[in-house]
Structure formats: structure tokens, C-alpha cells
Amino acid sequence: MADSKSNQRWHLADFAEIEGVPCPCGTARRAFADVAEFPGTLHVTEIAADAKLHYHREHTETYFFVECDEGAAMQLDDETVPVRAGTSIVIPPGVRHRAVGTMKVLIVCLPEFDPADEWFD
What we know:
Elements: E1 21-23, E2 26-31, E3 41-47, E4 60-68, E5 73-76, E6 79-82, E7 88-91, E8 97-100, E9 103-110
């Protein structure tokens, strides 16, 4: 993160130093929530095999799949879509989603992530 005593206008996140927090998908490490110039947050999420189906009313999430086990997929509403490392999916508000299989994803969340915007049926 930029040093508040310097004139740096950029921000750095070291995900190895960010504490992981439980989420419906597994464990998320979230960055840049405190950066006024960035309207969202960036997450590195370790997806567990038991990810829960959920949706957001406000957030759009873009998943970039960094690592995936064989047979990895995303459930998007009533459809299951195979995914592999190097693919990406934009998930608009209202789309019920969950990862199927274990994987590591980079998620861009717009607007800034708010845990109150996680909804379950």
C-alpha cells in the first residue's frame, strides 16, 4: 500500500500479507477497499469443494481462473459451465453462482465488496 507520508499516487497489495477471511466460496483475501480511486475491490479466493450457491444484488464480479482442478466448473443460475485456468466470467447482479471443484480465482468486484450483499435462497 502506498505510504501515507509520501507523494505516491499508486497502491500496492501483497496478497501473501493479507489475512484470508471465510466466504461462501472458501477463503478470500481482499485488497484496495480503502483506495478512493478504485471503485471496487480485488480478491484472491481459494475456492473450496463445498462452495455455497449465492448471489449479489449490487455487485458485479469478474472471475479470472488462475488454477483449477480437473473438472472445475461454475454453476450460473441453472447452467453449469466448465472452466479452466486462463478463462474468465463476468457475473452480473442477481446471477446465482457457485464454483464446482477446488480452484484459485482472481475476482474483481464492482462496486467495492460489502459482505451484506451476499444472499442465499
